[in-house]
Write a structure and sequence with these properties.
Blueprint lengths: L8 H12 L8 H10 L4 H37 L3 H13 L1 H10 L4 H10 L4 H26 L4 H28 L1
Length: 183
């Protein structure tokens, strides 16, 4: 709560959202929620900063996956004779890459894992960026909207149950897609 009122709180939020998407274990929500509660009129600005910074950090995670895999992972898998398995995994991941990035970007699943995997599997960067914008936008703007509308009483719900609601949403989305494909 102390950082929420700090004059440089937006910069700190931007930094946390950036590194959370590539290497840091703590989500930006821990700062974003008190910032919005302290200044509800700035909810949309705060969500925008978190979203943009998170997507930019996701691009760093993507680059980490792309660069580290080529220099470390690929030679090891090739030496072990697993090149075919590597390409099969890449193909499978990229077939569902949009849903993987969307799911990790919205739910409590660590986003950094998917950002690095996306680079490792050479998911098209444009697909990754667009999906990251959608996913992180949904996540941060829903949190901002709930806090802006309901204030402190909704905080407990957001911290304890919103992740579950997002997971249920993704399950319904996937179930709907499977049903549409079956028809």
């Amino acid at each position: 709560m102390g950082w929420a009122d700090h004059p440089r709180a937006l910069w700190v939020l931007a930094f946390i959202a950036f590194i959370e998407s590539s290497i840091f274990p703590i989500p930006p929500d821990v700062l974003m929620i008190p910032m919005i509660l302290a200044a509800p009129k700035r909810a949309w600005l705060i969500a925008t900063v978190a979203c943009i910074s998170s997507v930019l950090g996701g691009i760093l995670g993507y680059l980490i996956g792309a660069i580290a895999f080529e220099s470390l992972g690929q030679p090891i898998l090739t030496a072990l004779g697993k090149t075919d398995a590597m390409y099969e995994f890449n193909s499978r991941f990229n077939n569902f890459g949009f849903l993987a990035v969307l799911t990790a970007g919205i739910t409590p699943f660590p986003f950094k894992v998917i950002t690095i995997m996306s680079g490792w599997t050479a998911m098209p960067l444009t697909t990754f960026i667009i999906t990251s914008i959608i996913a992180r936008g949904i996540r941060f703007f829903i949190v901002a909207a709930l806090l802006w509308k309901y204030g402190k009483p909704i905080r407990c719900f957001i911290e304890q149950r919103l992740g579950l609601v997002f997971i249920l949403f993704i399950m319904l989305l996937i179930g709907g897609l499977i049903t549409v494909r079956a028809l």
